[in-house]
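Field: COMPLEX_INPUT
Field: COMPONENT_COUNT = two
Field: RESIDUE_TOTAL = 400
Field: MODE = joint
Values follow.
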Amino acid sequence: MSGSPLLNELIEALRCLPGVGAKTAQRMAFHVLERDRAGARRLAEKLGQATERIGNCTRCRTFSEEKICALCASASRDATLLCIVETPADQLAIEQATGFRGRYFVLLGRLSPLDGLGPNELGLDLLAARLAEGEVREMIVATNPTVEGEATAHMLSGIARNAGVRATRLAHGVPLGGELEYIDRGTLAHAFGSRQNLEG
Amino acid sequence: MSGSPLLNELIEALRCLPGVGAKTAQRMAFHVLERDRAGARRLAEKLGQATERIGNCTRCRTFSEEKICALCASASRDATLLCIVETPADQLAIEQATGFRGRYFVLLGRLSPLDGLGPNELGLDLLAARLAEGEVREMIVATNPTVEGEATAHMLSGIARNAGVRATRLAHGVPLGGELEYIDRGTLAHAFGSRQNLEG
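Field: COMPLEX_OUTPUT
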């Protein structure tokens, strides 16, 4: 323990961050106290504001401090494309990696009855109402390729069919830059089975 | 960018922490918003309090929210032993690794004229006054085993000699070029236990 109770409390509090153990928390505390108090004050302010004000968008359920998030409110996004993701983190990954200019719907989970996550918890009624508005032409299912994600995708395809909306799914296969030798058998078998024409 | 400006600001603010890049900052922000808002609120509070209230102990110069830190104020510490360290982080490492029950003096740096760090910046006048009080019998020099740390140790041994105080140095065993803060506890405890006379 250091001679400062407040410093000990700060080190302890830093451990709420994922992947931060005792030693890393110490290093972070000393770093900000010695070299970046302005940054620490700013972080304190933003953490306070974010935990206080960030809720969920009433339209797409992603994180938002407004009733309608900036992506749902933006007139420049294509309302005929709706991408379904499990979490706000997945949404951000797609925003950063692709040129997708449509809108999103965030499930905030995946179908998992044992964890008490059913259609109600995933907001599927809200999604059905969204599709019933008639604007969406294609629903892009981007749930994770896990057993639960696949079950969720299956249920989503039913909702799309009922609404007369075309449902698509992210392609599965060999990741770019991967080595065939080290890829798991399931992925390799799937990629082999759904091989495509090579265009010269 | 996510649909929440406040979330983007939180992610940006998290990057003030050492070793936290864009991807880690995202993961941290999503983690606390999804799973640990109470922890995040506590962290915000402690960061605010720490940057606001933690200054330096007027006696040993370590981090403290009081004028005199808890270690200097404690009657149960041995006032005849004074351990000199470069940083509060080094002090904490020694507290955690060894059974040292004496007191500390923190240089808040090391002799480094090119960086503008001379005897004044290291508080050596304060240290000399401390030794002149006559209570200290042994001064344990625990500066880092780097070129600058060795130069600092050399200067410290002169101060001890002038005050008629025995100066000792952490034993060899601490790898050269290493930083005390990151050395495993066993090595540090061993080096601390076999400290040797400092030859001026």
